[in-house]
Amino acid sequence: MKTEILLTELQFKAVRSSGAGGQNVNKVSSKVMLSFDVNQSLALTDEEKTLLKHKLASKLTNEQVLILACDEDRSQLKNKTIVTKRFLELLKSSLVVPKKRKPTKIPRAVIEKRIKAKRNLSEIKQNRRKPNF
Question: Which intervals of the chain form a coiled coil (predicted)?
């Protein structure tokens, strides 16, 4: 993943924010919408693209475009920096490949302990039976 190239591929769009704020909300477009096309990206390899499509399937549109929004601050510039940081963190976390699990061998002492417990329980149950004369 090449971060410098990624940042040039991002598309930003300023939209009017919703919620409280009075006249400021009606006048100023402070909400920032970030869109990133996974298929057209030059900064990602083919393996990274498939990994992103798999892990971010619920966040991608039908055209494989990731859309993030931020309207936390009244400043458009701060919202832009927040959504960019959020985008980079999302990509880093989704590009992590999980380690393959290695099945461990059951230790001999554990197997012997289980067999001993079974034998002990068997003897207890045999002692409960009526004697056979």
Answer: none
Instruction: Dig out the tokens for 60 from the structure.
Output: 């991608």
Q: Give the pLDDT band of residue 83 (cuts 50, 70, 90).
A: very high
DSSP 3-state helix, strand, coil percentages of the chain (rounded to 5)? Answer: 45, 15, 40
Count Cβ atoms below 10 Å from residue 70 Cβ, excluding itself: 22
Q: What is the pLDDT of residue 103?
A: 93
CA dist 10 and 29 (Å) reads 19
CA dihedral 74, 77, 83, 87 (to 10 degrees): 180
Q: What span, in angstroms and rounded, lies between the C-alpha atoms of 36 and 41?
A: 8
User: Does residue 19 register a pLDDT over 80?
Assistant: no
Query: Which domains does the chain possess?
Result: 3-94 (3.30.160.20)
Give SS3 for 97: coil
pTM across the whole model: 0.69
